């Protein structure tokens, strides 16, 4: 059922997500074929607000990271999905968490030109002084 949950989330299929969860799928299943990403990661990245809401209501860990340290908030910010970023923040997503390269949701939103998300993150406690590990010479 875990793979079915991930695939339904990947498609934005809220009915499929609910079905997999009702059949016992682990809402925090870390898909090894997707570098330990969860259904929440893929739904956040693709902007599937309804699926994200279902997963969070089912107990998805809002701050769980994949093997590269990427959280669902970073995925949503990278994808430019402002409504999903807002939902994740309301559910306790930590804007200070960074991936293995030091990128936070704020950094990826700024790099992607998603200034509405930048403002939302700043309004929710993101630290504008955080730097990633990339040096420019």
Q: Could you please describe the fold and organization of this structure?
A:
The protein has helices at 2-11, 14-22, 39-46, 49-57, 72-79, 82-90, 105-111, 115-123. It is 50% helix and 0% strand. The chain is an all-alpha fold and 137 residues long. It is globular and about 45 Å long. The N and C termini lie far apart (48 Å). It has a single domain, classed as Serine Threonine Protein Phosphatase 5, Tetratricopeptide repeat (Alpha Horseshoe), CATH 1.25.40.20. The mean pLDDT is 95. It contains eight helices and no strands. Helix 1 (2-11) runs parallel beside helix 3 and helix 5 (72-79) packs antiparallel against helix 6.
- Identify the overall geometry: globular
Share in helix? 40-55%
N-to-C span? 48 Å
Reported for the largest beta sheet, the result is: none
Helix count from the secondary structure assignment = 8
Instruction: Provide the β-strand percentage band.
Output: under 5%
List the helices and strands in order: HHHHHHHH
Any idea what the radius of gyration is?
15 Å
Can you tell me the CATH superfamily?
Ankyrin repeat-containing domain
Instruction: Assign the CATH architecture.
Output: Alpha Horseshoe
Would you kindly provide a brief summary of this structure?
The protein is mostly helical and 137 residues long.
